[in-house]
Amino acid sequence: MTRVLLAACLLLAAPPEEAAVQGLYEGTLKDAKAEARVVATGKGGFKAYLRVTGTDGKLSKVELDGKIEGEGAAFSGKGGETAAWTAGTLSGKCGDAALELKRVQRKSPTLGKKPPEGAVVLLDGKNFGELSKGKDKDGQEADWQAGDDGSIQVPKGGMSSKQQFDGGFDFHVEFMCPLMPAARGQGRGNSGCYLPNGDEVQVLDSFGDPTYTGGGCGGLYKYKDPDAFDVFSLASLPPLEWQTYDMEYRVEMKDGKPSGKPRLTVHHNGIRIHDAVEIEKAAKKGGFQFQDHGNPVRYRNIWVKAVGKP
Asked: Is the dihedral of CA 272, 35, 211, 123 positive or negative?
């Protein structure tokens, strides 16, 4: 009986999973509104990026390091800040102010958005006829790894639309980055959406993990960060949660052919991150490509609707 009770106690005292601790937290620091992004960094470690908006509207930021301890996790900052995680609650002190935050789950307002009449559906979870698979290093096509939620894992060699597009369009895509806590920068849930002109809108788990210009989630690859981008990556959601891009791609047509450089507006999880930006490459007829970067990124509910001149 003693051994049974000991085994039961050990099970009850099991450490939390990294996925349960990482995520978005909201609450207060004394009378001020506070928000934290807790990022898993591998081997039971975490970074907590705390944003505090005072009653005067001023914003302050605090960074804490964390580690799983027993059934919870302990956090501390260089300024003497301390916090403890227990069952989805982060509580502690910053100076003499009490901190109390609870884990929340935000959802994109366009998650599950249905394609309008006349849209070309590239992926609906049942049919893959509008997509071509790339090939692996041995020249072999990978199998579609379909999930019960209508998603697929990007295959080896990536995937691309069979249909070509030359004018303006509205584009919707949903994606989920894996949890890869030990990876850094471009190694965390990397993929990308290539537009018909060849520009790439980056897909990456940059939830609290900074990288180079245009390399973070929603970045125009290697040349423009999302608007108001920093390590907090305000539009990004944690890995293992579904995210959305809604894009407006506008092209000037001359004599029935695309001309000049397209302008692109992007909403990431409902937040506008690019506003009618002239993108780098000239407009041309082409398809969509979804990059395989060796990470198990998943996609679902992808569609495109051609539109007239802006």
From this structure: negative
